[in-house]
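During the no-cost extension, the postdoctoral fellow (Dr. R.K.) reprocessed legacy sequence entries with the updated structure-token encoder. One reprocessed record is reproduced below for audit purposes.
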Amino acid sequence: MNESEPSRRAQQIRWAASVLAFLIGSAAVILLMLPSAWGIAAGLLVGGAAGAGTYGTLYGREIKAQEQATLLTTEQEALREQLKQTETTVRTRQGELPPSTHGQLRMMVVGLDEIIQRWEALRRAPEQQDAVAMTVRRHLPRTLDLFLELPDTAKPEHAEEFKAQVSLMAEAVAKTRDDAVGKDLQALRRNRLLLEEALTDPDERLFRDL
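Re-encoded structure tokens follow.
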């Protein structure tokens, strides 16, 4: 199997750095031990250790980066799958939801999908990643479920509170989406507070008088 171009390039960099470390380590010891005849042997030994250590360090970093990329892809796929289920709920049961929330819910699903596509951009703002993941995994589907599980006769009574919660989440998701697209790390951190406010457990925020 042929190695990919990035893999060959990474290997070339590891070997080049290892050779450089070997030469520098060897030369330094030999010069320090001159005129001793043991200087060459000691230099080769130290240079070999330096080269091997450099190669091992770079290879370890490469493996760690590959593992992180695999975890990132796995998390993205899991979030996409959950979001797909939520989108299906919104689409198939929109007749049971307040009409004014239909557009917001669709745009929220689209915005969350775009954020997930740029998941790597949020790695430097892990708190924001957590907030988005909680939106997808729990808060958005739970908010929908709480309202949809109400008897049809009770839905009009609680529609305003549901609309307010959807509006709050939609605003937070839209801001996060814009910042993720723009890779604005400072804005992402500021908007985390808005998203966290929107993510108060729906059991506490919705339908309190049930």
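The helical segments are 5-33, 38-92, 99-117, 126-148, 155-182, 185-198, 202-205. The chain has a mean pLDDT of 76. The remaining legacy entries will be reprocessed before the final report is submitted.
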